[in-house]
Design goal:
The structure is a homotrimer. Chain A is mostly helical and about 210 residues long. Chain A contains eight helices and two strands, in the order H-E-H-H-H-H-H-H-H-E. In chain A, helix 2 runs antiparallel to helix 4. Chain A is globular, with a radius of gyration of 17 Å. Chains A and B meet through helix 2, helix 6, helix 7 and strand 2 of A and helix 1, strand 1, helix 2 and helix 4 of B.
Chain lengths: ~210, ~210, ~210
């Protein structure tokens, strides 16, 4: 199981690095800049989690394989997009899986420190979503997080909540985790495929 | 006194959450996104303070009441704005009080670690202002901090400085703290009501 | 040597504070806001380095001279630009030197914690570049980092890599450090003077 989790976490890093490289590619950056933004996207969420929890050394200093994986993924993205259009739908699916894995793994790490439920959900969502926010801020774009209809942060919060709920109902951690990941991926897929949206909260400006 | 301080800190969190919810509401986010940005606004400043000082566990992991309070405030804001316009002036006043409390409490925590005066002032201002910066960055707006005529960061720095000065002059900590908070609130009120401004520093662009 | 390094690090802080003050000055902020952004620019990179490495107390809490130096530099910039145009080329040169020093010093601190090579390069680049990113985000500008043709982050990564390579080849740390700094400064100068650029990586948008 530990090996599976490690493989999944490397997969999450790889997928996030691809999405970071593609976002940076749309902003006309030089290729070393693309590598840097891809890496920031891939390790940003876990880094924020470790810093907020005071877990030192943070995960990619303890195990630089995460950086190697994200650099390799970014270089791969550079090469693939040289010879053809990036597979947009594949990327969206991969991005949803990355969000799913990072969120649940962030929640599990926080849980292992005996934090209260609310903190676990919040920290899971932060772990899942922070990499994408960092990617957008460094690329000079407004963050996609919580944007109209995207259900990005929403999916992370809901999935972490479902994971905790399942655990409270007596499910084993591993199954509850898979359920939470599935929930996150499904919510994102639904948002992408059928344009399902949460109600928008809108205040008319007074001035 | 400790209970009063705790109540004030929860009040600061509540007020900041309302301001975060209203800002997010102007950006057409879904309601879970509004909750998330409200929470980030409410706990952002204190989180940055704890991380910079290495105070682990950070305050909202130690006491999740802060998250409960900010979520409740955000839900309340969602409900109130459903049935009427938000009370703009009340919000500005509340926001000024939140800045006042966060800044002085940040300064006091830093002081308790025997940091030098400059660090105390700086950390107070960071605690007070970082939540609002996070709110603006996550909402995709340019940060209001230090913006023309707002006197936002300025009020925080001045108030923390006045607090330290009063202490140096022999005032007890509690009274010096109240003086500092009053100074911050008054400077912000003055900036809002009478449009009092600091001189703008402007460099003409050469190109 | 230790004194030289300390002097260089104060110089780096001063130069970064000037660049922060000038950037803020273009955004019509009040003068206390200019001081704050100048300080954030000057200490941002080293702060992020210390937080990511868990080195507490962080450098400017341990030694507030860094804050004094950056405030003095910002006040100096305010006064000088009052009486004349800022010396643009001098500033660009100084900025390149600041990037060079921060990057190599960040790499050296990370190295002293027995981190693997990739982490050392990455942390060096983060230390060098984060202050400028913070400056741009706080000023409401899109970050210059990795921007088309600037070779900013690129220079930092290349210089930290060259520093490590020289060490691997048996050079003493001090000389390898000077070589790395020289490489960073030269790459930036080349980018500015002769508009040398890395290939741009650009993906045509599908939609």
């Amino acid at each position: 199981l530990d090996r599976l989790l490690y493989a999944l976490s490397l997969l999450g890093v790889i997928v996030s690095a691809c999405s970071g490289a593609l976002t940076a590619g749309r902003r006309k950056l030089d290729w070393l800049g693309v590598l840097a933004i891809a890496t920031a996207t891939a390790i940003g969420g876990g880094t924020l989690r470790d810093v907020l929890l005071g877990r030192y050394p943070i995960f990619w200093i303890r195990d630089p394989n995460y950086i190697v994986a994200s650099l390799a993924a970014a270089v791969g993205t550079l090469l693939v997009t040289r010879f053809g259009k990036p597979p947009r739908m594949a990327l969206l699916i991969a991005d949803a899986l990355g969000l799913a894995f990072f969120t649940i793994s962030g929640a599990q790490v926080t849980e292992s420190l005996h934090s209260p439920a609310l903190v676990v959900v919040l920290m899971g969502a932060i772990t899942g979503a922070a990499g994408g926010v960092l990617r957008d801020v460094l690329s000079g774009e407004t963050p996609l997080l919580f944007r109209e209809g995207e259900l990005y942060g929403t999916a992370a919060i809901a999935g972490a909540g479902i994971y905790l709920l399942a655990e409270q109902l007596g499910w084993p951690t591993s199954r509850a985790g898979l359920l939470g990941m599935a929930a996150i991926a499904i919510i994102r897929f639904a948002a992408i495929l059928w344009r399902i949206r949460l109600p928008i909260f809108h205040i008319a400006d007074e001035d």
